[in-house]
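2.7 Reproducibility. Because tokenized structures are sensitive to small changes in the input, we list the exact sequence used for Flavin reductase family protein, including any N-terminal residues retained from the expression construct. No trimming or masking was applied before prediction.
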Amino acid sequence: MPAAPAVGAPRAGSPDLLRSVFRQHAAGVAVVTAHGDRPVGFTATSLNSVSAEPPLISFGVGTGSSSWPVIAEAEHIGVHVLGEHQEQLAATFARSGADRFAAPTRWNRGPEGVPVLEGVLAWLVCRVVARVPAGDHRIVIAEAVAGDPDGAGRPLLYHQGRFNALRDR
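Resulting structure tokens (single pass, no recycling of outputs):
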């Protein structure tokens, strides 16, 4: 039987501990969009499938983000699963102060007027059903009302503070 890996001394719970642990967790990269007086969007690594019946998703958004005021009021949001070829798009939507919808970003108004990004692996337009307080964030729960799963390519991942691609074994 192989030896168990050594376990380090536990550290007290803190924001730094949480960030350090989640740097070890590879996550898919998505962009969430919405439209109020203007289109907004941000890069998210917290996208989750919640339920198949009804078809629910969730993601976290910081209440201090520039997108939050629009997300806080939006009836519908867009969720876009990015491909490994879209590292620059992910970086644009993660950058504070960037004009995220200017060229070279390609997008159109989709169902319910939600900005839908072109060239993504998959997208959904969802009706927001809840915004749950969670510290300095809100967990948004939304029901899929339209989408397209048929984009080409492989997913973009986020790990160790960097965007990455899947590696074949």
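The domain at 27-147 is CATH 2.30.110.10 (Pnp Oxidase; Chain A).
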